[in-house]
């Protein structure tokens, strides 16, 4: 078969005979070109040349020796004025531009001259599938009996015998590595440990907000450390399993945390560790259930935070060691008669006209403490 292909490829008349056969049988031109490439080779003839001879033969012009040198040079998309190409790319969304840049180098250069900006990218890796969402367009590559299946918007399903993470990253990686990519929010939910998920983000990665949940703390910290400090404003950091004091310190010692303005995390703090949140505008986290809660000390600490706007603290109460009336007495607020589930309190910050407004709510096995600065 290889010898036959080489013979046809090296003989101009043999190649034109193959095209003539397709045209006489009126086979669709795209199917004909694919079959031609399978037989002769992908580099035997460019599609525009194949198209010329196909339609010439289709219209019963069977002269194999026709001289094309006198014909006008056919126009291609690359003959389009650069200004018009820029105009076209402006009318495409970011996902459509990522597809356009794969056509050829010239179009890639045009697309890359504009920084791609995504409102949200969401990446999820499970044991059986890899999914990602680019703004409102969803993609998925999942395990099948024969290998994997890749689904993309407005395109036929792609079936492959490759490993699902390998195949999926072939399509996702080029998007993440586009020059000067900018993302308003990046969501990473990585429950699968795999070499194909190592180094899949360029360093540093440019995102204003990030949500991270990984299979272990080391992976979570690794993903967080890739984000560009200072540019990253908001962090949602979810940790499963046992949370040690070392984990809390490791998270708080990252430059990403130190330069963020808003943080939401599943870590458990004690009152001393709350001081590490002094640079934040807003935060949500939990208080450790291993120590008693001193709400007056929490009030005194937060009142010193210059940039503080609001926070929400949670504390479990499985051992029934807390009572909402204890909070009320500590804050020196009025305690009404009868059942008490919510207390509110306003505290004036010393030497200031600003206040901290507390709302403490008792739910089943949980206390919620909301604090807002009133200016």
TrEMBL record:
The lineage of its organism: Eukaryota, Metazoa, Ecdysozoa, Nematoda, Chromadorea. InterPro entries: DUF38/FTH_CAE_spp, F-box_dom, FB224, Mos1_HTH. Residues 74-121 form the F-box domain. It comes from the Eukaryota. One of its GO terms (biological process) is innate immune response. This is F-box domain-containing protein. It holds the Pfam family HTH_48.
